[in-house]
């Protein structure tokens, strides 16, 4: 359907507007859309009349093609085409489209009044649709007020919800902050414990207290302290003198850590003191080195920053306690080692010089640990003119082993006065040790030389075999089956062995510290000893047996850290090949 009106005056404009409203109603255009259509059209027609000329209004129904309309929807198009004069002036057509869901094939517009005043009033005022729209709008106002009240309540609920969400957000942020703080504290605690464990391992790795004192500042500077001073008291118990900070003197006297600074430190277990007169601008933490009797000294530290974290201070006090234990153990170890070594050397025999037999001995204490005091050698004459040469090794180390070694040495000399072969002497020593110290064992090898006998008699009890160099330069190991260790809970009779001993022969007796290496065992070491002994000529052994002993030790110990005692006894029959 298409309708067209020519409009040049108010009457034609009013008729066109009324006809448009009626057609829109007939086509089922919703009241609100009709009101908008007629209101817009009225305003446009009034504008056209003001400009003058003849304008054309066209109404047309059809299928929707404009943006925003549903595909296939029936719509009503209204177009106001400008007069030729307005078109020439660039006035564009006016267009509007409204939906008409109840489209019909064709309708009439009915009679329109001819009274110009009535038509003008229709153009300028409201028609039936406008009145209906106003009634509908009045109804909508109540709904709007109702919805406005609902919206206000909803807004209040939204505000309350936002407040709850904000509170929940704050609580969550506080929880996150607490979690981060707890995680940081846990990480710091783990870091301190790791450092404490690593530092303790470093401090206890050495048995030299000077080395421990040297390493402690290296561990603490610069992370936990800017400087570290360690004062060890003298052996007679003297305390630090006036040159030391007053807080250090108080720490030495009371045995409690002291903090000297202009302001209290608030450190757990630490007493506060005035700032040091030696350096009033620098805080000092003075920690005693505690022992069961009295402090060994005082460690004085300055902070890496302005002050210490309380937890760091607790860790420093604990580390100082562990360092004190390490220093005390090292000093005790050195003291016991010195006593054992002194006793060991005091008991080692001055070798005899019988005719036709030259003796040379070497004893080297262990350089690592307290592994001294168990190895020994001895050589002495028997009443019948024979010479006994012995090398032994008491299990265990330290003072106890040194004392046991001295008892075995004395017992062997006493038994040898009554005579007896090496096997008989070892058998008696076995019985003696078993009854004297059931939990202590020993190994030994005894060789007996007699000027009237061209043979050498020997016996061993759990000891490495002797090595014999013959006058022609050949070297062999005397590996006849030895007896069991001395002192074991076993009754045994240790057998004697005899070997020819021509002039120019050399016998080497030794302890396992000379030949045994943990990584390779003892057999390769015995082979090396045989090679070293065979490398000398007869003239060298006759002329300088002492030098030959040193010549054997040098290559044998070049690859050893000497973590055990070493004994070597060379017995050389004078003569030439």
What's the SSE blueprint?
Blueprint: E1 2-7, H1 10-26, H2 31-51, E2 55-63, E3 74-81, H3 84-88, E4 94-99, H4 116-124, H5 128-204, H6 209-220, E5 227-232, H7 246-254, E6 258-260, E7 271-273, E8 284-289, E9 297-302, H8 310-347, E10 357-364, E11 375-381, E12 387-394, H9 399-417, H10 422-436, E13 442-449, E14 455-461, E15 467-469, E16 475-477, E17 497-500, E18 506-510, H11 512-515, H12 523-534, H13 538-543, H14 545-557, E19 566-573
Parallel strand pairs: 6-7
Antiparallel strand pairs: 1-2, 2-3, 3-4, 5-9, 6-8, 8-9, 10-19, 11-12, 12-13, 13-14, 14-17, 15-16, 15-18, 18-19
Biggest sheet character: 5 strands, mixed
Q: What is the number of E strands?
A: 19
Give the overall average pLDDT: 84
| N-to-C CA distance | 150 Å
Gyration radius over CA: 59 Å
| Spans of at least 5 consecutive residues with low confidence | 235-241
Side by side, the strands of the main sheet go 5-9-8-6-7
Helical percent range? 40-55%
Count of helical segments?
14
Q: Would you give an account of this structure?
A:
The protein has 577 residues and is an alpha+beta fold. 45% of the residues lie in helices and 20% in strands. The strands form four sheets. The chain has a five-stranded mixed sheet with strand order 5-9-8-6-7, with helices on both faces. Helix 1 packs antiparallel against helix 2 (31-51), helix 1 crosses helix 4 (116-124) and helix 2 packs across helix 5. The longest helix has 77 residues, at 128-204.
């Amino acid at each position: 359907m298409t309708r067209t009106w020519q409009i040049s005056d108010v009457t034609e404009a009013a008729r066109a507007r009324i006809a448009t409203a009626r057609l829109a109603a007939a086509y089922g255009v919703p009241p609100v859309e009709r009101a908008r259509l007629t209101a817009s059209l009225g305003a446009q027609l009034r504008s056209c009349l003001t400009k003058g000329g003849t304008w054309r209004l066209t109404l047309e129904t059809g299928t929707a093609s404009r943006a925003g309309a549903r595909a296939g929807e029936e719509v009503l198009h209204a177009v106001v085409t400008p007069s030729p004069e307005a078109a020439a002036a660039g006035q564009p057509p006016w267009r509007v489209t409204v939906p008409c869901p109840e489209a019909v094939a064709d309708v009439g517009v009915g009679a329109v009044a001819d009274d110009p005043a009535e038509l003008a009033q229709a153009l300028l005022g409201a028609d039936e649709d406008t009145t209906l729209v106003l009634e509908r709008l009045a109804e909508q106002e109540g709904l709007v007020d109702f919805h406005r009240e609902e919206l206000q309540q909803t807004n209040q609920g939204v505000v309350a919800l936002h407040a709850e969400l904000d509170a929940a957000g704050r609580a969550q942020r506080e929880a996150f902050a607490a979690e981060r703080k707890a995680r940081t504290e846990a990480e710091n605690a783990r870091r301190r414990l790791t450092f404490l464990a690593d530092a303790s391992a470093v401090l206890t790795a050495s048995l030299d207290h000077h080395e421990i004192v040297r390493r402690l500042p290296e561990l603490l500077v610069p992370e936990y302290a800017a400087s570290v001073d360690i004062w060890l008291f003298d052996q007679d118990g003297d305390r630090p003198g006036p040159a030391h900070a007053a807080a250090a003197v108080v720490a030495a006297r009371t045995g409690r850590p002291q903090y000297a600074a202009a302001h209290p430190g608030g450190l757990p277990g630490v007493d506060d003191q005035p700032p040091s007169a030696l350096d009033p601008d620098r805080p000092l933490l003075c920690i005693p080195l505690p022992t069961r009797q009295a402090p060994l000294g005082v460690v004085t530290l300055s902070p890496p920053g302005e002050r210490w974290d309380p937890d760091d201070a607790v860790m420093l006090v604990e580390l100082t306690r562990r360092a004190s234990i390490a220093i005390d153990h090292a000093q005790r170890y050195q003291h016991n080692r010195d006593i054992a070594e002194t006793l060991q050397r005091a008991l080692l025999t001055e070798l005899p010089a019988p005719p036709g037999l030259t003796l040379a001995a070497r004893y080297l204490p262990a350089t690592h640990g307290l592994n001294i005091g168990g190895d020994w050698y001895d050589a002495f004459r028997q009443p019948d003119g024979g010479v006994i040469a012995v090398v032994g090794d008491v299990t265990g180390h330290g003072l106890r082993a040194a004392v046991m070694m001295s008892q075995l040495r004395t017992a062997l000399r006493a038994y040898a006065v009554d005579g007896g072969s090496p096997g008989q002497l070892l058998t008696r020593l076995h019985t003696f040790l078993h009854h004297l110290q059931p939990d202590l064992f020993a190994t030994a090898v005894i060789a007996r030389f007699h000027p009237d006998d061209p043979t050498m008699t020997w016996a061993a009890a759990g000891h490495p075999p002797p090595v014999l160099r013959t006058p022609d330069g050949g070297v062999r190991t005397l590996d006849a089956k030895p007896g069991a260790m001395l002192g074991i809970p076993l009754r045994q009779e240790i057998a004697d062995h005899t070997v020819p001993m021509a002039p120019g022969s050399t016998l080497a007796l030794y302890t396992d510290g000379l030949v045994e290496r943990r990584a390779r065992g003892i057999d390769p070491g015995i082979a090396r000893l045989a090679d070293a002994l065979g490398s000398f000529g007869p003239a060298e052994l006759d002329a300088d047996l002492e030098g030959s002993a040193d010549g054997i030790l040098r290559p044998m110990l070049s690859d050893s850290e000497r973590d055990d005692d070493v004994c070597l006894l060379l017995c050389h029959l004078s003569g030439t090949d």
